[in-house]
Amino acid sequence: MITISDLSKVYGQGEKAIVALDKVSLEVPKGEIFGVLGQSGAGKSTLIRCVNLLERPSSGSIFVNGQEMTTLGGSALRQARQHIGMIFQHFNLLSSRTIADNIAFPLEVMGYSRTACQQRVKELLALVGLEQRANAYPAQLSGGQKQRVGIARALAGQPEVLLSDEATSALDPQTTHSILELLQDLNRRMGLTILLITHEMGVVKQICHQVAILEAGKLVEQGRVGDLAARPESRLAQSLFPRPQSYAAQPGARVVTISFAGNSADEPVLSNLIRRFDLNVNILSGNIEKFGEQRVGQLQAEFVGEQFEQAVDYLRSLGLRVEVNN
Ligand SMILES: Nc1ncnc2c1ncn2[C@@H]1O[C@H](COP(=O)(O)OP(=O)(O)OP(=O)(O)O)[C@@H](O)[C@H]1O
């Protein structure tokens, strides 16, 4: 649905040039939620704004639904943008217009008749659960409600793709959760493809099927969220499952990190281990995360016992990944 190839963006020239994106390539399949995760200054906003050409790339190509965006200009670009909705961190609502009129705005631009516009606005208000607030002004709404208006406005022209530029960064955790639920619901019910940028791991955990990590303008990792989480060496796993920086191992103890994925997270692995291999186990850290139906976890523990090697072999025979750390 979205294919980005070798996308680069340089701001400024000569000594003052800033490389915001450096040969970024990624593919967002139709109907998926794809998150781009990165710290401040990594290039996330630049990336998402290049997709609908709010920012012109320096080089590279961007296909959205088969159309090469970078070749477009004028009315062809305006038309292409009607198939790409966008929501923003600070909502970007028109303060002098009511909620209904904010949502109607893109429809007016698209040339909808007054009646067709009113009908569509009603549907959109229902879609985001704001039927009762049609005549309110943005200043009378909470942040979460404002973002619902932003989503309704973005979906007015029935786009196949929604771009989300840090849409929950200005919201409290509970409101963030409900907005992400709404996005997930729209993705499931309407097959909406969503490309979102965020600096929050929680957003990726809650709704993304795939994730790419952007660091200083370069994509340093990408894949399915559950798969990356199950690979202890991935950046995603390291940030999901932080390990203690240092540990004073007991005399004779071996420190191991066990990664669980899929069904193995449901097995009573530790009690089997203790019983079958007569081990003493001292847990140092542990966490299990859920991605859709898949559970992924990491446990770090000290093992003390004569049958340490056999115990590690047993764990590996179950398909678990085991690292021995000392
Ligand atoms: N219009 C611009 N002119 C010059 N430099 C810019 C411009 N926009 C962004 N940059 C620079 O490009 C780099 C990437 O910025 P960008 O805003 O894309 O990052 P980001 O990951 O979205 O960060 P944040 O979350 O802080 O917005 C930064 O070094 C930034 O200073």
UniProtKB/TrEMBL annotation:
Positions of the ABC transporter domain: 2-241
GO cellular component: plasma membrane
InterPro entries from the UniProt entry: AAA+_ATPase, ABC_transporter-like_ATP-bd, ABC_transporter-like_CS, ACT-like_dom_sf, MetN_ABC, MetN_ABC_transporter-like, NIL_domain, P-loop_NTPase
GO molecular function: ATP binding; ATP hydrolysis activity
GO biological-process terms attached to the record: amino acid transport
PANTHER family: AMINO ACID IMPORT ATP-BINDING PROTEIN (PTHR43166), METHIONINE IMPORT ATP-BINDING PROTEIN METN (PTHR43166:SF30)
Similarity section: Belongs to the ABC transporter superfamily.
Keyword Glycoprotein assigned: no
Protein name: Methionine import ATP-binding protein MetN
Claim: Ion transport is one of the keywords in the record: no
Key words, A-Z: Amino-acid transport, ATP-binding, Cell membrane, Membrane, Nucleotide-binding, Translocase, Transport
Top-level taxon: Bacteria
Source organism: Dictyobacter kobayashii
